[in-house]
């Protein structure tokens, strides 16, 4: 029985989407894939629908109207997965910055090692990032240090987007109360899992920057993360029962 599903949000990933799907399906452990596409004008969704004929009952797609943000795409995917029988629900990018070969390691960290949340971590064993300029590596590393300081989480890579959640984590967190829509969404999900005392383990991975397609990072996304973390922490002090 296939009990794990990989949620892949997409916007203009035509150069990557078929390769990432085939790579995931070539892993020794079988997974399903749900692509959540935000109306990509480059034909990403069309390519996925074509591949569905080759991978019936393993490949799914949800198409949304307009570009609504990474966080809302994952929330959409989480709710879709929770309506079905999946026990392990993954987040993964389409651009190969997350290596599909590491999926089994994240799965085993939850299945065998008892983690409720397994994080593919760039910083648990030093700095494992390829093809990023030094200023971006430094910014990302400092951002994680900043988040750790503000939130008190014992997590080295707080902004990581390569994650496996056990079903009960997503059932416990009030997904309708998640506020961030950009990359700060990753921080908020970890923080709420932390507040609920779920067991969070980090798995060392090598992060490789995309070689095809265009990055979705922007100044507003960074601002959301920097200023939103303080607001999130303060709110938790007064409304812990509502997380």
Low-confidence stretches: none
Please estimate the helix content. Answer: 25-40%
Following the backbone from N to C, one meets helices and strands in this order, namely EHEHEHEHEEHEHHEEH
What is the CA–CA distance across the termini?
Answer: 33 Å
Query: Could you tell me the mean pLDDT?
Result: 90
Q: What amount of the residues lies in strands?
A: 15-25%
Shape: globular
Q: What is the number of E strands?
A: 9
Count of DSSP-assigned helices: 8
Biggest beta sheet summary:
7 strands, mixed
Radius of gyration: 17 Å
Structural class: alpha/beta
* Side-by-side strand order of the widest sheet: 3-2-1-4-7-5-8
Give a short summary of the structure.
The protein is of the alpha/beta class and 243 residues long.
Show the helix and strand layout:
Layout: E1 4-10, H1 17-25, E2 32-37, H2 44-52, E3 59-63, H3 70-82, E4 88-91, H4 103-111, E5 117-121, E6 129-130, H5 134-151, E7 163-166, H6 167-172, H7 184-195, E8 200-204, E9 207-208, H8 219-238
Parallel strand pairs: 1-2, 1-4, 2-3, 5-8, 6-9
Antiparallel strand pairs: 4-7, 5-7
Helix pairs in contact: 5-8, 7-8
Keywords summarizing the entry:
40% helix, two-stranded parallel ribbon, 243 residues, globular, single chain, seven-stranded mixed sheet, alpha/beta
Structure description:
- By secondary structure, this protein is an alpha/beta fold.
- Helix content is 40%, strand content 16%.
- The protein has helices at residues 17-25, 44-52, 70-82, 103-111, 134-151, 167-172, 184-195, 219-238; strands at 4-10, 32-37, 59-63, 88-91, 117-121, 129-130, 163-166, 200-204, 207-208.
- The strands form 2 sheets. A 7-stranded mixed β-sheet has the order 3-2-1-4-7-5-8, sandwiched between helices. A two-stranded parallel ribbon has the order 6-9.
- Helix 2 links the parallel strand 2 (32-37) and strand 3 (59-63).
- Helix 7 runs parallel beside helix 8 (219-238).
- The chain is globular.
- The two termini are 33 Å apart.
- The relative contact order is 0.16.
- The mean pLDDT is 90.
